[in-house]
Specification:
Layout lengths: L2 H9 L6 E2 L2 E2 H16 L1 H8 L17 H8 L1 H12 L2 H20 L5
Antiparallel strand pairs: 1-2
Helix pairs in contact: 2-3, 3-5, 4-5
């Protein structure tokens, strides 16, 4: 994870916030590493910030403004983080399923009924 992002998250208090038997910062670093290997830098950054604004199951100690996050990582990456925080998990899964079906249909040219 880039040092400027680690410093930003640490300033928000995630370095000592417990999460799944480790700190929330360690969790964010793990998400970043997994995404970087498969999806590249912008998505990895968004993944590291996946709960920056809070989610249904996670409430951060301090919440930055969207402008602060945009300045740190850019508009598109911030929007991904915002969507992850604000959409319900069922909506995220539904969008992923729609995207997969769209891709599959285009690759296989499934005939219409």
């Amino acid at each position: 994870m880039p040092e400027h992002l680690r410093a930003f998250l640490t300033a928000l208090g995630v370095a000592d916030q417990p999460h799944s038997g480790r700190t929330f910062l360690e969790h964010c670093e793990g998400v970043y590493r997994l995404l970087l290997a498969e999806h590249g830098y912008p998505i990895a950054l968004a993944g590291a910030l996946h709960s920056i604004y809070g989610t249904a199951s996670y409430r951060p100690r301090r919440v930055p403004t969207r402008a602060q996050v945009r300045e740190l990582v850019g508009r598109e990456t911030e929007e991904l983080a915002w969507l992850f925080c604000t959409l319900k998990r069922s909506q995220i899964r539904a969008l992923a399923a729609i995207d997969r079906a769209n891709e599959m249909e285009q690759q296989t040219n499934v005939p219409a009924d």
